[in-house]
Specification:
Structural class: alpha/beta
Strand content: 15-25%
Distance between the termini: 44 Å
Largest sheet: 9 strands, parallel
Strand order of the largest sheet: 3-5-4-6-11-10-7-8-9
Number of strands: 11
Helix content: 25-40%
Length: 321
């Protein structure tokens, strides 16, 4: 059985992987025309790729982030006309392709992670839109296999995501970085978590810090400046390969209500932008923006925030040249 996605004047057929009971494939609608920043479609050989990962079966509160990629693509129409206001970078000059939506195994978290890893394998540089934060584990597995070494991590989030499991589910979205560190995908002394503020058990903080991870609470961000936080990030991550994982609930619910586990007291969009814009020079090899749940959004502001953070990241990449 095949899943067919209609495009302008043609169709694309994605066949199920061996042993999967179901797949999910959704239409490509990111920006105009029907692709992120007008990028060409389905070219896995492009220097930079965008893909949606519509999985939310490991969420612990409100579901709905499976629809995040479509909402982010739609909101990205606001970003197709002009260059970056500070750097002048133009991400449309990148060799960029939109791969559409990755397939997942319906109701099967380990199976979905395996399929996501398979589809991310071999890509030169991927910006993924989730989906829940659990998808990051599969993306890191694929990246680290390709480059042959663990990565530094810039993690913007309200939550530590270093629980060994969530309510008995081993691969839920709150355990992603416990697995990433335990599997050697991330170099924990080169990992920094920014915006943390959610309730957590003391042993989670103890374990996370004990691995060498730097935690920057949201209150510290508020009492500092984007320039100072960016300088701290650069000092921790250093010069090796790195990855950016941006959970949209790192932003305050006033700026991002459309997410599964909102936590008050978070970053404002201007703070997040100010930090990202100062991370040029870090050797990023990939990124994701996750946890957008459009059913809980208001006036598309969460989707626009997520699309803009992805755009800011690609502007950093375009500014390298």
């Amino acid at each position: 059985m095949a899943a067919v996605v209609a495009e302008e004047g043609r169709s694309w057929t994605g066949r199920r992987g061996a042993g999967l009971t179901s797949v999910m494939v959704t239409p490509i609608t990111f920006a105009a025309p029907h692709a992120f920043l007008g990028a060409r479609l389905h070219d896995r050989g492009a220097a930079f790729c965008v893909a949606g990962v519509p999985m939310d079966i490991g969420t612990t509160n409100r579901a709905g982030s499976r629809d995040g990629p479509r909402a982010i693509r739609a909101a990205a129409r606001m970003l197709t006309d002009g260059r970056h206001p500070d750097s002048g970078a133009d991400p449309t000059t990148l060799d960029l392709s939109d791969l559409g939506e990755f397939e997942i195994a319906l109701g099967d978290i380990p199976g979905s992670l395996a399929r996501i890893e398979e589809q991310a394998a071999g890509l030169n540089h991927l910006l993924a839109f989730g989906g829940e934060h659990g998808v990051t584990l599969a993306l890191l597995r694929a990246l680290v296999k390709r480059i042959g070494q663990p990565v530094g991590l810039v993690h913007i989030d309200a939550h530590l995501d270093t629980s060994e499991d969530n309510f008995g589910q081993r691969f839920a979205h709150g355990s992603v970085f416990w697995h990433a560190i335990s599997e050697g995908l991330v170099a924990p002394k080169r990992m920094i978590q920014v915006g943390i503020r959610a309730p957590a058990w003391p042993d989670m903080y103890e374990w996370t810090r004990g691995q060498g991870v730097t935690i920057v609470p949201a209150q510290d961000v508020h009492e500092s400046t984007p320039a100072a936080i960016a300088a701290q990030i650069r000092a921790v991550v250093g010069g090796g390969p790195a990855y950016l994982s941006f959970d949209i609930d790192g932003l305050d619910p006033a700026f991002a209500p459309g997410t599964g586990t909102p936590e008050i007291g978070g970053l404002a969009t201007w703070q997040a932008q100010g930090i990202l814009r100062r991370l040029g020079g870090i050797d990023f090899r990939g990124a994701d923006v996750v946890e957008v749940a459009p059913a809980h959004d208001v006036a598309e502001i969460t989707a626009l925030a997520a699309a803009t953070m992805g755009w800011e990241y690609l502007c950093l990449m375009a500014g390298k040249g």
